[in-house]
Amino acid sequence: MLALRPKRTAKPPRTSAVSRTRKTERVAVAPPALADQARARLEELIVKLELAPGSIWSELQLSERLGIGRTPIREALQRLESEHLVRILPRLGIQITDINVTQQLLLLEVRRVLERLIAENAARRAMPEEREQLLRMADTLEAMGNADVLKFLRYHYDIKRYIAACARNEFAASAIAPTHAMSRRFYYLHYRKAHDLPVAARHHATVIRAIALGEQSRAGAAADALMDYVEELTRATVMHKS
After folding, report:
1. How many Cα atoms within 13 Å fall on the side-chain side of residue 6?
2. Which of 166, 226, 230, 160 is nearest to 194 (CA)?
3. What is the rounded CA–CA span in Å between residue 242 and residue 239?
4. Residue-wise pLDDT tens for the chain (242 aa)?
5. Are residues 107 and 155 part of one domain?
6. CATH number for position 195
7. Residue 43 sits in which domain range?
8. Alpha-carbon distance 41 to 62, whole Å?
9. Alpha helices in the chain (DSSP H)
10. Could you tell me if 69 and 150 lie in one domain?
């Protein structure tokens, strides 16, 4: 007769140090909405130059200034670093990046290619309801030509994200976001000399309407014209300094 082996009681699986770390990381991640809010508010402070180029801040200072916890602030800063608006300096703090015309012109080389790609793709891929929304956005943006520049830039931020979503290419959307962030700050610094907000609004509205109407080649051409204008404005800042 075979002896029956006693049943073994199943032991709970061991939790490795890596697993424990991952659990801790999951708990520490901020709710996306709060991190998004922190990022948007920090970007606006940087764009408005209230966080001056070259200045250094601590996470605690920024957390207290915004009234948002340090975890979402930290996540927002990591995103802003990828957008070249801040530089995280270990043990020193967070430095706001300087504004450099030469770097801005290099950035525009990349932005030009991406603006055309996204405009053409959005013209081809946008859904009917998105096209209707884009037409409304174009009218609203053009009407802001005589509005407060910050109100214009906030709406510009929303529109650019919306168009990138309509293009349905997440890689292009991720690539162009930093160029828009840096361009907004550069524009805010120099727009008073140019007095061109109505012209800028008209260029953007032309691109948006071409996308909304599904006119792919016209959307690409309008994006090129927009970037010609942006580059001309950027080079003019060098002339103003000399």
Report:
1. 2
2. 230
3. 5
4. 444 444 444 444 444 443 443 443 343 444 558 999 999 999 999 999 999 999 999 999 999 999 999 999 999 999 999 989 999 999 899 999 999 999 999 999 999 999 999 999 999 999 999 999 999 999 999 999 887 898 999 999 999 999 999 999 999 999 999 999 899 999 998 887 767 899 999 999 999 999 999 999 999 999 999 999 999 999 988 765 54
5. yes
6. 1.20.120.530
7. 31-96
8. 10
9. 17-28, 32-47, 59-66, 70-82, 101-125, 128-143, 149-167, 170-194, 197-212, 216-241
10. no
109/167 same-domain check: yes
Domain match, 80 and 139 both: no
Of 171, 148, 146, 144, give the one whose Cα is nearest residue 159: 144
For the chain, what's the residue count?
242
| φ and ψ of 15, to 5 deg | -95, 115
Same domain, 171 and 211: yes
Report field, pTM of the whole predicted structure over 0.85: no
The residue among 163, 161, 166, 210 whose CA lies nearest residue 181 is 161
CA–CA distances in Å: residue 232 to residues 38, 47, 99, 106: 33, 21, 17, 13
Residues 74 and 140 in one domain: no
Domains in the chain, number: 2
- Does 180 share its domain with 206? yes
Q: 155 and 197: one domain?
A: yes
